Amino acid sequence: MKTIILLRHGEAESPGKFEDHERPLTARGHSQAQFIGQALQSRGLIPDGVIVSDAKRTVETYKNVKDVMELNPRQEVVSSRFYLAGVDRIFEEMAAIEDDINTVLLIGHNPGWSEAIGVYTGEYESLGTGEAGLMNIEQGPWLELLGRSYQWQLKEKLGASITR
């Protein structure tokens, strides 16, 4: 089974105080990221591949998740190309993931993250800050699997304020 964890960054400071790319997490944003790390760990979802937008809020989100999980992925990329990425850019960046990696954590921004869930699963799910969508599909090469729109299964949506 291949799993993609699409995590939207935690709550960030207001855009008026900082340039968008440099907005740090709020205290709530740090808590949201730590919650996601704990939730993933409790489900046995340990990413062996990670791609993170290079925006400050996404890097801080990843640091919180990584620290909580004591994560040491085999493949880890911080990408300027993931900043405000859409579905096409997500696909391009994912193409570099090694085929023997089974669980990939992608940390980025909306609207691209919510759109990606819709494209891959056929179900639109809006991701709030600090929320994650978990998508699964059978084994195979990443490039082949990423080309299968509407065939992924949205297994679960995680977030501190989500009760389902």
UniProtKB/TrEMBL annotation:
Record-linked CDD domains: HP_PGM_like
Pfam families: His_Phos_1
InterPro entries attached to this UniProt entry: His_Pase_superF_clade-1 (IPR013078), His_PPase_superfam (IPR029033)
Protein name (Swiss-Prot/TrEMBL): Phosphohistidine phosphatase
